[in-house]
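Blinded run. Sample ID left blank on purpose so nobody reads anything into the name before looking at the predicted structure. Input follows.
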Amino acid sequence: MSFCIDLDVTFVGHILISVTSSTLVCIVWNFNKILEILHKHHCVLAYLSGHTHHGAYSRDKMGIHHVVFPSVIEAAPISSAEHATVLLYPNRVVIKAPEDSDMFDVIMDVNRGGVL
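Blinded prediction complete.
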């Protein structure tokens, strides 16, 4: 049974669950079980995390976007790199990074067609 009812769901966690967005050292110990559960539901759009202190992005075989945000403590003392803006549209989700950060913009198609 799926918990999806015409929804796009994004999960947020501290530690990564995708081996394609980091090394095994920075991945939660039971990532395979978590991904197995998320992959059962077609409405999971993204998993947002941190932990590695470096930004990263990947999209897994089931179309889930894995976005890793860079650490605030790695940002320059006078910078706007301590945040990102998430813009929600009917057909996409945009994560907009500050210009002076190590983060990059991510655009996710909510129709599961991929990154725009």
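Unblinding after everyone has recorded impressions. The chain has one domain: 9-72+79-109.
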